[in-house]
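Working notes for the structural subgroup meeting. M.R. asked for a predicted model of this chain before we commit to crystallization trials. I am recording the input and output together here so anyone reviewing the notebook later can reproduce the run.

Input as submitted:
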Amino acid sequence: MLFLGFILTLWPILFVLLYIVLNHIAKPRHSVCIIVLGDLGRSPRMLYHAKSFAKEGYEVDLVGYSGSKLHEDIQINRRISRHYLWEPPIFVKYVPRLLAYVLKVFWQSTSLGLQLLFLPKANYLLIQNPPSIPTLFVALIVCLLRGSFLLIDWHNYGFTILALTLGGDHPLVKFSKWYEKFFGRFSKANLCVTKAMRDDLKTWGISAETLYDRPADLFQEATVEERHDLFSKLSLAYPIFGSRNELEQDSTVFTYRSASGKIQYRNDRPALLVSSTSWTEDEDFGILLKTLQSKYEAVTSPEFKFVQSGRTLKYFCKGPLKEFYSQEIDSIEWKHIHFCLPWLEAEDYPVLLGSADLGVCLHMSSSGLDLPMKVVDMFGCGLPVCAVHYPCLSELVKHGHSGLIFKSSQELCNQLQELLESFPDDQKTLKKMRCNLKSFQAIRWHDNWKRTVLPLLKQHRKDKKKR
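Returned structure, recorded in token form:
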């Protein structure tokens, strides 16, 4: 008992001494810790940040949850270290909702705080928002203790996402909004995804620089050979991609190998539509189902395939509404349309986008202030998009130029028929949009990042020298 009392008395002192020692084990001058309170593999923008920092000579610590497989260029990068947080215990799922939320926040605060304190000191802490609770508070405390520079990348607002399930008048939503607004003001610098969000943050007293999402280099239009290889690979698990003629060898429903050995497109190939989704409440997949069922199925038109895809296997499967819409699809007898919900490897996702004929975006935005990164990826592959309207979407999708914007299932139906009615013989409009996307494809993530983020860091170093 005496020994136990001795330990309980001294452990706070020992912890402080240990922290002082660890706090002085600092990494080189250029170092950054990037925090994602979520699956790292489902946070492409933050992974792009990590690669850009590493490319500019920074040592990078990535902190977040495991789950989705990270792209190989992250795994093999010697400047990027990955640190995974502990998942909340399973029993949290079986307690009342409010109690589960409190327990989860306590667990995340503890695991994130300990992880950050025991990592070597970083010059910069870059956090993704949302989620806001408890990330903002924990990151702020760590920065105050260690003298790090806090940088917030505002992707959206956490309280608006919470309001999708709880309603805007719920006390927890109101608290979340106050929390986000209050602690967000303590950051040293801020990034955001649109000009509309930048202007809205000003009303909170927060100054931010707009860093538009741009595609990574791996998002490119696929060659006919790359498409053939992908469709052949997918056909092993999903016969829908295979040739309709069982006697044909080395062929798919879209491509075939000619007698001369050259890969060519089939003249009777169907159109390939792709919609990337995480199956969450801010995407109304029902709009597309209603369009295809009540409108497109009712007309006599060339068969086309609709392929529903996710960024990675985990990203695709974790959406809470996936099962609901899967049952909806299965309950309908389709005549002209084939659905396929493939499990894609991370490397196959860009190739699928680069092989598609048209993208469909159903992202509604909980705040109306963010932009769908899935469209950025599609544009990077030169893929035109039909996207559902919301206030700031025009910052990305130019109607009639790089895609079409619709407000109802009827409008979407008209657009699909206009673009695909004579496919593949008449692709004049699609080709024009692809041509218009060349200028967008010319500017990639890292070049855009250097013009926006590096000046912020340089300014911080100047200000620090003055002090």
